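## retry 2 of 3
previous attempt timed out at serialization; input unchanged, resubmitting
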Amino acid sequence: MPNPIEKWDYFELKLAAETSKNPFLDITFEAEFVHGHRSITVTGFYDGDSTYRVRFMPDTEGDWQYVTHSNLDALDGQQGTFVCAPASASNHGPVRVIDPYHFAYTDGTPYHPVGTTCYVWNLQGDEMEEQTLATLKDAPFNKIRFCVFPKRYAFNSNEPPCYPFEGEVKRAWDPSMRDNYRAEPPPDFWDFTHFNPEYFQRLEKRILGLRELGIEADLIIFHPYDFGAWGFDRMPADVNDRYLKYLTARISAFRNLWWSFANEYDLMLNLDLKDWDHFFQVIEAEDPYDHLHSIHNCRPFYNHRKPWVTHCSVQHHDLLQVRTWLEDYGKPVVVDECGYEGDIGMAWGSLSAEAMVEAFWLGFTVGGYVGHGETYWNPEEVLWWAKGGELYGDSPARIVFLRQIIEAVPAPGFYPARDLETLNRYQSHYVGHPTRAVNGIEHNTGALGHGLSVSVGLALAAKKIGYRYRVFTLLGDGELAEGSSSEALMAAHHYKLDNLVVIIDRNTLQITGRTEDVMGLEPLTDKFTAFGCAVRTCNGNDIDALVETFSQVPFEPGKPSLAFAQTVKGKGISFIEDAVQWYHKVPTDDELKTAIHELESAEAALS
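## retry succeeded, writing output
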């Protein structure tokens, strides 16, 4: 049996087979993977040198069985098993959409895309590509957009190390072709019936290199930046389909893959919206793992409401529109292109570092995400946005700070709309203030000490009008650091409000830690005696002690009564007692059951 494969890694079966037929057109090869009652069929592929492979990403731990099916005898009926082991600490699975405006890994770990763009970094040769990976290792980015096909554009005049199809470039590209290349047929360089496995092996190596760094590969399947150099933007329809299927068979088992169907899809004038719909449907049918799907615009948006689009990949400079797009499409919005930090003289490539950072902050605070790019000119014409290499701009170091803030947020987004609807409900992430819709509670104000000021007013009113009621006010000890508490007590002493009873819950905890660590309060008895209060101390966790204390009010005539009730927060529940994290924490179902059991046991012991 092969070594265990961890969950969301990939199992690979390699088989050798000879044939005189075209292995890309004439040979069918797939494998069925079975776990319990589940069965998943994935397509294999020819990898050159009489070698066939099939890759599978298991999502469930345990034993998996497989059997192959092929019209070639040597590939048919091959059986085996492997064990899927638990995922390692750094492996959280593919990224999914949740919320519906945000992302998380499959295991629930929040994922906030902080991306960059290096369109053809993967086609620059090993030395430059390794340098790019080294740069990314120390950069703040957890997603990178790049192309499958080579690109011909400003600062992109070099040829790739190899090509995706068998054949060779038969003429040098002439820049004058850029303006009229559509008037000529595509170059006749390639045998579109034979892929070049080496080209795709290089791509796979780079996707897996990104995976080792924890970076998602947002892979651009088509783009318009060919201008007659190779013709990959104007391939026949059947070639497009074979390309999509071959690409999916090779790389869909990689967990860090996102499908970006095009960069500036609307500039590929030989394709219409039905073609793009079809491409989405092909990948949907071929990809058993349902990786993320998007499509990037130049000007008009694709209809992101279509069910096969998982999130909006947007080119636009106005980040304030993100909120509108969220509402219109009901999906996450990633502004992958709002401009690039650089100095190349074109508006889209000449943002200052400050403008780039501002775009990130603005996009995030209105509910979306923003992508980075860098276009600083250098004599070698190695611009990050095109070829990778090194980063020279100042924005990445500042984007680090934003990413730290983003990832400190406990929920996938700042304020998921659906979660806000749970305010004050059981198991909500968002707690509220105590209600005053309870007999005997006249006012609630939160933790700013205002309750004491209100109580002084009520007690003073009783004195002025001649009413004989008493006013009780309960303060947390953390509130005593508020200046309004001191002001209220001075007024209570001045007006001799002996009809006012102030109860201080002295549990020594507030939301950020121990009261003495946050803002030292002691010696409290001396301080409040000096304010003119009659002070008593009691055990706030002892009902009899509380009754005895309150039976003595007013403690002294002509003075407000102040009782320090010394308590243990969470008293009676073992895992909550005196623990600051439970200041606002909501218990899980299991924790709630444990707490109720402990309280019921304590009640039974008293009866």
